[in-house]
Design goal:
Blueprint (H helix, E strand, L loop, with lengths): L33 H5 L4 H11 L23 E3 L2 H14 L1 E9 L7 E9 L2 E5 L8 H7 L5 E4 L3 H4 L1 H6 L6 E3 H5 L10 H9 L19 H12 L1 H15 L2 H11 L24 H21 L3 H4 L2 H10 L15 H20 L14 H21 L9 H12 L12 H7 L11
Parallel strand pairs: 1-4, 2-5, 5-6
Antiparallel strand pairs: 2-3, 3-4
Helix pairs in contact: 8-10, 12-14, 12-15
């Protein structure tokens, strides 16, 4: 793919591309070298929390395992060779359903480093070592196999390698966090709370941050990784019973299918959450520059193999957009701009801004919010009505929509604008909500 004037290939909205050329000043250390300078960002935090977790030694006893036919109570088996992995894949395929999770380190690289893959059935728990000399393509093909159900919990990041590595999305995924939202349970619930409430089990000591790329794994890590999948078959079984009782089994299935559809894994830089104070003060030209810089940052971060915010924090991107640098020398005044980025990508940043300014300038969007107290009351009544209707159905409102989307729906409907492109007002969500989507009558 040809490189454009920004120094990063035209990856479009996905931000997938490659950089070429050298630094703006011609010195050694072109694109690809910045990551080596910045890849220390959060390493100390993980190391500290890992040390704290192991401070009491690995003699910490794991909690008792619940006695149930769907819960394997033995030690996890390590899978570190190709023959063992190939055999496990056939075991999982024959089972037809299995729990899946992964442990990864995500703060150092553009794509998280996958360190452990965990799977479980009623007959066993296995920990696959992705750092060993094994080919995982067969495993990812199993994740994409629609004939085998994969049970996950908040599994977006765990499933992300599948479409990226084999170009096929995961299929037949049952996400217990999503399903709980249709089973009369709190949403979103963490795995430990859901397991405690539904399966009556204690997952034990948590390891939010741990050095998962160490070998060998510690006994504490092995126990934590195993318990993350051990109860998923039981959780699946009991959630399916609840969903059937409430008549929500199809709805939960549709929600899971939507959550892990192919398009959900496409990286859109403009859809990423952006943290920046002062967004409202940007004018049209600065807003255009901000959009161009966010798209550019995504591609450059992939080239440098860095998380986008490690390459350029959001507040620095915002400062660049406000400054509208016209030449590389102007970048010196941008507070917080890392020197390696300025040296290698200085000309590229200026050209991104220039290209954005040469294009159409976006018009300021009008805030979609109520102006009068009567409008506030109407929106509040609509929101309460949707919540009450969902509660009667055993569905958590947040599992299908949110206050922001309802506000937009209210604003468009009140003004007679179309809402056909809103998930809230189409398909199974519209069928579920029914008359609850009708705007309440305004007083007076």
């Amino acid at each position: 793919m040809a490189s454009d004037a920004t120094g990063v290939s035209d990856g479009g909205a996905t931000g997938r591309g490659a950089a070429d050329g050298r630094g703006a000043d011609g010195r050694a250390g072109g694109p690809g070298s910045v990551g080596r300078s910045l890849r220390y960002a959060k390493r100390s935090r993980r190391q500290k929390q890992d040390a704290d977790s192991h401070a009491d030694g690995d003699g910490v006893l794991p909690p008792p395992i619940v006695d149930h036919e769907l819960v394997h109570d033995g030690q996890p088996a390590l899978v570190e060779t190709q023959p063992a992995l190939d055999e496990l894949i056939e075991v999982l395929r024959s089972a037809g359903t299995f729990g899946y999770d992964s442990e990864f380190i995500g703060e150092h690289t553009y794509h998280p480093e996958v360190c452990v893959l965990q799977v479980a059935t009623a007959s066993g728990v296995w920990l696959i070592d992705p750092l060993a000399e094994i080919d995982l393509s067969g495993f990812w093909a199993l994740i994409a196999d629609a004939s085998v159900v994969k049970i996950v919990h908040a599994g977006m990041q765990d499933l992300e390698p599948c479409p990226r590595l084999i170009d096929h999305p995961p299929r037949a995924v049952f996400d217990t966090q999503v399903a709980a939202g249709f089973a009369g349970l709190p949403y979103p619930a963490s795995l430990d709370k859901l397991v405690a409430q539904v399966a009556g089990a204690d997952l034990g000591h948590g390891l939010k941050f741990s050095n998962w790329n160490r070998r060998p794994l510690t006994p504490l890590q092995l126990a934590y990784a195993a318990n993350d999948v051990r109860y998923l078959p039981l959780l699946h079984d009991r959630l399916v019973d609840r969903l059937r009782e409430l008549g929500n089994i199809e709805r939960a299935g549709w929600a899971c299918d939507e959550a892990f559809a192919a398009e959900a894994f496409v990286i859109d830089p403009l859809a990423r959450r952006f943290h920046g104070k002062g967004l409202s003060r940007l004018d049209g030209k600065q807003t255009a520059a901000l959009r161009g810089l966010r798209v550019w940052r995504e591609g450059a971060a992939e080239v440098e193999d860095l998380p986008p915010r490690t390459l350029l924090p959001d507040w620095v991107v915002l400062a660049l957009a406000e400054a509208l640098p016209a030449e590389p020398g102007d970048l010196k005044a941008v507070k917080g701009l890392p020197q390696p980025v300025q040296r290698v990508y200085g000309e590229a940043l200026v050209e991104v801004v220039a290209e954005a300014l040469a294009g159409p300038v976006p018009k300021p969007s009008k805030p979609m919010r109520p102006k009068s107290q009567a409008e506030k009351d109407q929106l509040g009544a609509l929101w309460r009505g949707i919540n009450a209707h969902c509660a009667k159905q055993g569905v958590a409102t947040q599992a299908i929509t949110n206050k922001s989307e309802v506000t937009k729906y209210w604003w468009l409907t009140r003004r007679g604008r179309p809402t056909d492109d809103m998930p809230l007002a189409t398909g199974w969500r519209a069928e579920l909500l029914g008359e609850a989507l009708t705007l309440p009558t305004m007083p007076g």
